[in-house]
Amino acid sequence: MSQLLDALRGNRERAHASIPSVASASGSLVISSLGLPASPRRRIPSTWIVVACSLAGALAGGSLTWRPAAADLIHSSALFDRAVALQEAGDFDRAVEIYEALLARDELPAQVHNNLGLIYQHGGRLEQAARELENALAHDPQYSRAHYNLAVLFDRSGERARAAEHYRAFLEHRGSDHASLTSDVRARLAALAAAR
Fold this sequence. Notes:
Structural class: mainly alpha
CATH class of the largest domain: Mainly Alpha
Number of strands: 3
Mean pLDDT: 74
CATH architecture of the largest domain: Alpha Horseshoe
Largest sheet: 3 strands, antiparallel
Number of helices: 10
């Protein structure tokens, strides 16, 4: 705690000389040199440390760039998978809560916006769905799944030119995992061209 207070008071030299050593341990950080006895070690949630270090660093005139640790990324992936499972089970409210939490952490934004777009489309909120799908593409312009979903949305809304644009973008950026959709998209593009 004295290190944090030193940083808050502007005593940079002392604060930097006594920065604690940390080690990742299952989503929490193990702090062993905060002026506390080394044994037993205290487990402090990583969020507390990030906030404290960010505040101390900013007030001491320094800067701290925090990047998620591998454990945090695995946690985000697990949260995303949980939201997808809830979405597939029709529990859209709980899925949206998790997706919004992931967005607040700026993690997996293209995929999250895409899935929010699908939820809003399913609920008949087409303008909001289009905004979410466009946000997905703003984060990753080559995200083929978002192009496909936006094309379907525009196609169903009667916006043929915009639908064709996103069907073509899907074909341009698709990966081998979307091979099953390719023939359907080509057929739909031919139908849109014939309807002109």
